[in-house]
# Entry
Amino acid sequence: MNPYDLVLPLIRCLEPERAHRLTMRALSVGLGPVQRAADDPVLATRVFGLDFPNALGLAAGFDKNAEAWRALLRMGFGFVEIGSVTPRPQAGNPRPRLFRLAADEAVINRMGFNNDGMEAAARNLAGQRRGIVGVNIGKNKETEDPVADYVACARRLGPLADYMVVNVSSPNTPGLRALQDKGQLTAIIDAVSAVLSETCPDGAPPLLVKIAPDLTPRDCEDIAQVAMEGPVAGLIVSNTTIDRPLSLKSLSRSESGGLSGKPLFEPSTRLLSHMYALTAGKLPLIGVGGISSGRDAYEKIRAGASLFQLYTAFVYQGPVLVNRIKGELAALLREDGFDKVESAVGADHP
# Structure
């Protein structure tokens, strides 16, 4: 038996946020499994001008302060996204703010961008590294000028990022999702892009935007237009949802916040497919939401994802899930005659 099969049930007996903190401490000091074998070559892919050893990433929210990315890369993730990071440290929303919905293989969180601020993240990202680390940035809750917050984070963290993500889609910071409005989103993207070019003379990191799954059709069209016409390298589809499917069974289903996990798979994949169509397959997409198997990952890829990310399933199933998904995905790609991930991207579209 894998030792983590014994540890996980014990961790899940703890209050969710305490369990997460304990996990982060262990990973930050180097405790964690290490992938010994090289990835199957069919999983390697090149996106945003970056070479990924495999298309599986860990989504933002797990390693908020860039404390454990080294251990997570050694575990076998093809890339890790840290954050969301805000300019100033902030405590986030009052506890309790993290709820397991075990019967639904889901989580509800209303964390509120709790993090130690951009200076702490910068210290933790400094130095040489192997592997791809993205930096997800947001605004402080009390800020009156959101553009200034995104610019500040980009200026400080851009030189340390392999790619940078503008997060305007968390449901847990008041007014944040309104920044997906065409005019406000354009202002943020243009300002962040300008400061990245200024502070990264050897080449600015690719700039991505993370969007919500609860967008109107007009919102989707506007975001696609902004992304296609501006300096956006790709979109992350999607963040957590404020929707509550009637199928939810867990007692915590009525808690406010963003819902992630298995119930998010279908709506996030529909949105992914829609955004792929709106951008005519010309803009790389990262698929996020409800992935818990190689089959789920393969569906995201066929719907239009060039890369994909986990979070909630990783919390429930632990490190063993990483290699399991990669193995299942490699088998599915070969079964359908694909010799590389990018050949399958968007395969379900005419």
Remarks:
- The domain at 3-344 is CATH 3.20.20.70 (TIM Barrel).
- The CA atoms of residues 178 and 184 lie 8 Å apart.
- Residues 182-199 form the longest helix (18 residues).
- DSSP finds twelve helices and 13 strands in the chain.
